């Protein structure tokens, strides 16, 4: 080939480097295909394996691409001496030929001189991609600043504490962004989570938490950085479809990894899937994604659908067969292409452009993207207890139910999910049937008030009658004050109390005595030290603190206990028979017995109560008081535990005062209260923010929902304490369903309480305050009882 | 307040922050906005009440917010929806050219591409089925 050598470009493309490049580019056609084929086979083999493994495989394959290319290039380079010659313009063709004859085999030289033309085209392509990527990166950096606003303090704190728990040492900022239509993470050294406006306030708490957890998982895994490197590889080897395919596998598996991460910490797949769905729906009009981008070379269609199916563990039926079928042929096709290309290698080198297009045709149809295999649900579920189990305490550890373990862990709001797989469902059914035996009665009647939640769970987890017998024996033994003797005084006394309660407290034609409020208290705490009984009601001198004067009351009883463990000294409990049927209900509000004052609580709007209480101390304030101190109503008859045992007369007044204090503070600080108040009471979460309380800090409150409507909640108590804890359960329309107020013990880690609620959705607003704190902390959890 | 303010221009970053608060709180007083900004740890420039007041007055002049002077404490509300403002912001060149690509560089729970309507329906179905199965 005789060349009219005119420019340095011509010289360059015929230089040894350019030729080596051309060779490497050509060889990479089959190398890339081979790597992709290996990956496809590996992914097929590890179909059911964890996303982490598959992700690692894909990453390795992707990293192998530039390495293969680089090695080929290095090998194709002539030995070093010639490289010195490269920059020196040597226009003499004869001389070039002479040199090459020295250093390279003659045929290869000829072939590669043709292949060398590929190098400049490739370089131009790489430059173009890199420029485009750089601009994209600039745009991403701008997203951090433009149209963003720091998220509310509670959320920032929550993210910070969660990041600390996940061992993320870099500071994570949470911003609300106008431009972000979906939540995203930007940056590696100083990562920022952008939440689209409205996400934090608009989605239910547990869903927001799941999404944030996903983003934090990205940060923890340094995905932003890895993705940058990934795009570099894409830019470098942009001409090979296999690179894009692998890159997409990496992306898909990366999301799967993060999904697994979320599910391992947040037990509710449904909430997570729902969160993803609503985020996707909330994407707003600006339609960047619709435009075809080089980035999204492989079709992304159905990506989210596959993920949701995977999250819910339902993909087995529909999604799997397609991807199975797809992977096989694709792997074969790639393998075949690779072998063919390898066999015809000389051809390729002659006409380096042709095989590329051939490969491109063979290469994966968009649907062939090896979507990760649905992971068996078990994987997700069983990982959960392992993480949480270590947190659980006590000798009953191995028996404790998983859900309960999560509860103690109290990291996140978690909705107890009914069992997901068939097996567990059957087990549960079996359990239910089995419990239709004396043991069920034992659990739900005999010891309903004294069994701890942990013990209850443990007992429910037992499968054989033998185990149950043993458990019961141990149960009493643990409580026996004199374990050495044959007699168990505790058990005797307990059954005596039940008998007494059934005999004395049963209302006419109604529930058994042990189920009544008086029965519950009697069984839990024994005979009171003093009983003041007013069986016929009638005239009653109202104490000065309640406004004084004389009023007419329902029949009522006051029980005085000198001391109740966990509650304090001189506890006075009041029971009112407002229906005059002999069923005295415990009230925590002194005005409950006041027949003239009864107004349905739910009718009094919260803001009115607030205002009334604002003028604390005035008699009229006390008169307006009942609503805030609404006694807890147990809506259904399942025996309450822990909480009920503790609910006490003192709590009501305190609860009311606390709320009043919050409201007073709010009212003083915000003269324009009228406009804001409506919103205040619409979402109690805002109330917490506006009233200048803070979130619970490092931990979060949690709600666990059990079958039958039993709802257990946790308020973390981090600090020396003791704390006052108080809160309300409301329906979405704001009706007060139940309230509670209590004192924690010093050193207690979590406050755990239980409600039983009818099906429906509820908001639990819970607050805690230590005596030394100027401001308490509160949080809101919205949940649904099925 | 001038009769019909002309189309407001693109808000500055500080203005955007205030708009953020107004969009999430609804019509509010300067005091409330200031309070909200203070609670969200923001740049020092917006922490002064007078600064917020000044910016919001400017915003009213620009027509970014509307001022209700009926009450003693003036109540401000955003003149434009956030969707509209978002489009304004998105109109800028860099954003238009590289916004989509930038989104492929960031990490997030949702992919770059929107799910199709069919997909959304399918997803909803999957969740419903799951719920049914769980019951």
Any key phrases for this structure?
heterodimer, A: 786 residues, alpha+beta, 31 helices, 13% strand, elongated, B: 135 residues, mainly alpha, three-stranded antiparallel beta sheet, 6 helices
Explain the overall architecture.
The complex is a heterodimer of chains A (786) and B (135). Chain A is built from 31 helices and 17 strands. Chain A is α+β, with helices and mostly antiparallel strands and 786 residues long. Chain A has three domains: 1-142 and 222-375, no CATH class; 393-479, no CATH class; 603-786, Macroglobulin (MG2) domain (Immunoglobulin-like, Sandwich). Chain A has a four-stranded mixed sheet, sandwiched between helices. In chain A, strands 5-8-9-10 form a four-stranded antiparallel sheet. In chain A, a hairpin with a 3-residue loop joins strand 8 and strand 9 (568-576). In chain A, helix 2 packs across helix 12 (241-265). The longest helix of chain A has 30 residues, at 16-45. Chain A is elongated and about 115 Å long. Chain A starts with 7 loop residues before the first helix and ends with a strand. The relative contact order of chain A is 0.07. The model of chain A is unreliable at 1-5, 81-109, 284-301, 315-329, 343-420, 594-656 and 670-701 (pLDDT under 50). Chain B is mostly helical. Chain B has two domains: 13-84, Winged helix-like DNA-binding domain superfamily/Winged helix DNA-binding domain (Arc Repressor Mutant, subunit A, Orthogonal Bundle), CATH 1.10.10.10; 92-134, no CATH class. Chain B is 57% helix and 9% strand. In chain B, strands 1-3-2 form a three-stranded antiparallel sheet. In chain B, helix 2 (30-39) crosses helix 3 (49-62). Classes of the chains: A alpha+beta (786), B mainly alpha (135). The interface between A and B is large, with 90 and 64 residues. Strand 3 (184-186) of chain A pairs antiparallel with strand 4 of chain B, so a sheet runs across the interface.
